[in-house]
Specification:
Blueprint: E1 10-12, H1 21-24, E2 33-38, E3 51-62, E4 65-73, H2 82-96, E5 101-104, H3 108-111, E6 117-119, E7 122-126
Parallel strand pairs: 4-5
Antiparallel strand pairs: 1-2, 2-3, 3-4, 5-7, 6-7
């Protein structure tokens, strides 16, 4: 397999039936999920041969508070920065929707370098207003 990097990945809303349940859960609503794809245009109308390599699920908990409920990259694509890139994408989407805090669970080595701190059994990122 050719090495895949962040430059080869684009994030999209998934098509119906394209949600990777093994990464984000079988109950994930389509609107809460974003998928990372490689090798294609991300559109069935383009005859795309794209494949999903990772995904995340972001939910709004209440006004100003969001949670990353799942974030994963398939094993064959790990180690190329795709997970970290998806994390940054999720933070950007949450912030654009008015987030002031984002909660997540995951390994400290993955979340702490981005600014998440321990909080209630997981981690929390507090966004600073401009």
């Amino acid at each position: 397999m050719t090495a895949i990097g962040v430059a080869d990945v684009t994030v999209y809303r998934p098509f119906p039936g394209e949600v990777p349940c093994d990464l984000v859960g079988a109950d994930a609503p389509l609107d809460d999920v974003r998928v990372a794809k490689v090798d294609g245009q991300g559109s069935k109308s383009h005859g795309s041969t794209s494949r999903v390599v990772g995904a995340y699920r972001l939910v709004q908990v209440d006004a100003g508070r969001f949670a990353i409920r799942a974030l994963g990259v398939y094993p064959a694509y790990r180690g190329a920065g795709i997970g970290r890139w998806l994390l940054g994408h999720a933070i950007g989407i949450a912030e654009s929707r008015g987030a002031r805090t984002i909660d997540a669970k995951g390994p400290p080595g993955f979340l702490k370098p981005v600014g998440f701190t321990p909080w209630a059994g997981g981690y929390r990122l507090v966004l600073t207003p401009e």
